[in-house]
């Protein structure tokens, strides 16, 4: 791959196109911006393609903090290192990398431990800045600061990312599949694989059959679960979910007077081995806990509620039933070691990433990707910066 080795722009600002969110809920504006060179522990990356995640839409709509405008959204992507800043030794110009929102510094006690994926040196925050010096690498042509998003900001032809947030990968992997592991698919698969450690022959319940829920199903499938129950209010999702290993379905609207947890307890003979909440509703988190099996059931919370929301559990149930309730950011994955493993499982035809990609659009049509997601027509829409240019530089596009 040629990549951007020996880039003539190294150390200089780059002028390029970006899709800028200037006002809440309004179409993104394709405009020229200035991307500063990377500072210490940073790399500048030419984005090959990026995919649209529900989190992008959530923050695009949000009017109050932590929302902030103008901003460059996007956090699921793959790119080529164009240039590196000082104190960077793990990648060089031309390397293919996946940026990730959750840091993996490799130095702190948490990153060195197998027990956690929450870096203590660079704690994850919903910050509009670069993580180390709290400044931006983006300005528009008027000199106005453009804010970062989730440490990535991939809706730009070039972006700057801290080395704690990049994973070097095999350049032969199709970028439209590899970019999915930046966030959503990794979160769901990782929750089943790493956080829950789903066992062969086990029973799994998934509340919410959006992209995250389907990724949990995929993770449970490749882990050998034999009964995977999907719970949703949208009947149309059930046929799609079968492709991801879901074996049984519960339509919440058809449970009558019974709580959905009671229906599931009856279906499973006392509760599921593993339950996953992928919607972000406290009521469903409580229902998920209620239908996890007494003695060893494990409930994993992936959905995000308001920060001050409270989960109510009876003390007697917590003490007497021997269940586990846990959260999982990024599915419990350690990006730099686990993403390459997942990509190998994809290349070995175990992990089926292809079925997550339902649409592809050119960068100029990025607002169409938002429309498709808002209309419920896509799981993942891949947005190509310049597919033909990527192909000519030796990057596989399919």
From TrEMBL:
SUPFAM superfamilies: GroES-like, NAD(P)-binding Rossmann-fold domains. It is an enzyme of class 1 (oxidoreductase). Pfam families: ADH_N (PF08240), ADH_zinc_N (PF00107). Keywords: Metal-binding, NAD, Oxidoreductase, Zinc. InterPro entries: ADH-like_C, ADH-like_N, ADH_Zn_CS, GroES-like_sf, NAD(P)-bd_dom_sf. It catalyses: a primary alcohol + NAD(+) = an aldehyde + NADH + H(+); a secondary alcohol + NAD(+) = a ketone + NADH + H(+). Its cofactor is Zn(2+). One of its GO terms (molecular function) is alcohol dehydrogenase (NAD+) activity. Residues 40-170 form the Alcohol dehydrogenase-like N-terminal domain. Residues 212-345 form the Alcohol dehydrogenase-like C-terminal domain. Its EC number is 1.1.1.1. GO terms for biological process: formaldehyde catabolic process. GO terms for cellular component: cytosol. Belongs to the zinc-containing alcohol dehydrogenase family. Class-III subfamily. Homodimer. This is alcohol dehydrogenase. It comes from Populus euphratica. The lineage of its organism: Eukaryota, Viridiplantae, Streptophyta, Embryophyta, Tracheophyta. The gene is LOC105132883.
